[in-house]
Specification:
This protein is an all-alpha fold. It has one domain. Helix 2 crosses helix 3 and helix 6 packs antiparallel against helix 8. This is PTS system glucitol/sorbitol-specific EIIC component. Keywords: Membrane, Transmembrane, Transmembrane helix. It holds the Pfam family EII-GUT. It comes from Oceanobacillus picturae.
């Protein structure tokens, strides 16, 4: 009998924990995202969408800027997860690569700019605890972390753009083959 009671309590407890998690989102990150999205859209409207688009096009004209400077600006100013909305300024074929480069940068940025992704700060703090226990400065670690993150986001952006281009070409090729047959 105790087994059934424990099973029932565990079953309902699972849903109670899910409800608590959901309420945490409803009272935490969801209002933050709504306000941040509203603020970013207001700033874009205030500056002018054409000017913001022109700036974004200048930042994304060359792949090296598209997968270093542009994601850095997005992560630094909009933080995680709002930074991914900067993809709206890119053509569809470049959006997956931008996302990949930005998502790979939200962790390395925390050493110098913890506001960008405070949820990942615990990882950096764990690594930095070892450095501080040796009596060493965290500055070089944070800088190296950031520089390696920039290299990684560039590489991931390039690789994902190449893969996306191939997939688009294959899809077009297959569509042509289906039309021809």
């Amino acid at each position: 009998m105790d087994f059934l009671i424990n099973l029932a309590e565990g079953f309902i407890g699972m849903f109670e924990a899910g409800g608590e998690q959901f309420m945490g989102l409803v009272t935490g990150i969801i209002p933050l995202l709504v306000v941040l999205i509203t603020a970013v859209n207001a700033v874009i409207k205030f500056i002018g969408e054409d000017k913001v688009n022109a700036f974004a096009q200048k930042c994304t004209k060359y792949f090296i800027l598209r997968y270093t400077v542009f994601p850095f600006i997005a992560v630094f100013f909009l933080t995680n997860p709002m930074c991914y909305t900067f993809g709206r300024f890119l053509p569809e074929r470049q959006k997956p690569a931008f996302y990949d480069s930005a998502v790979s940068f939200v962790h390395p940025v925390t050493g110098l700019f913890p506001h960008a992704n405070p949820a990942e700060l615990f990882v950096y703090m764990g690594v930095s605890a070892g450095i501080t226990s040796l009596g060493l400065s965290l500055g070089p670690l944070a800088l190296r972390f950031l520089l390696v993150g920039i290299v990684v986001m560039l590489l991931r952006g390039l690789v994902t753009e190449i893969i996306t281009d191939r997939m688009i070409k294959n899809k077009a090729k297959n569509a042509e083959a289906n039309v021809a047959s």
